[in-house]
Give the backbone structure.
Amino acid sequence: MTISGRLAALALATACLIGAPGAGHAQAKPRFLNPPALPPSRGYTHVVEVPAGSRMLYISGQVPLDREGKLVGAGDFRRQAEQVFTNIGSALAAAGASFDDVVKLNFYVSDMSHLADLRTERDRHVNARAPPASTLVEVQHLFRDDVLLEVDAVAAVSR
């Protein structure tokens, strides 16, 4: 048997042993867990288990700038949050994903008093039955003084 023949046979044997994706092999979706030993969650999930083989997307921190780089919603936290989630949605769509695929959100806000507005906007976008794991941090400054929040995301897309 030639080297290329042996490599092909080895690849076939490996695929049979580990279960290559394809017909008959359904890709598992992320599993969202809220263990009873942890406090109740409000709009987020404590643990998200992502199965091996998922396509992972890491969305950089999005800020309330439009496609021309202009600030949207100067001084208006709710409007800025809307733009941030619009930007995240655009980034997800460009990679063939949606908010249903988001498994983690990190929020950076300059003023925690806007939490209700942030939750309202978040809840318009994320899957309420399986919300992503989340972290919320109040920061002293973002990259510009007129930017009131930044949000990054991680998505897991089943192949």
About this structure: Confidence is low (pLDDT under 50) at residues 4-25. The CA atoms of residues 2 and 8 lie 10 Å apart. The domain at 27-157 is CATH 3.30.1330.40 (60s Ribosomal Protein L30; Chain: A;). The longest strand covers residues 149-157.
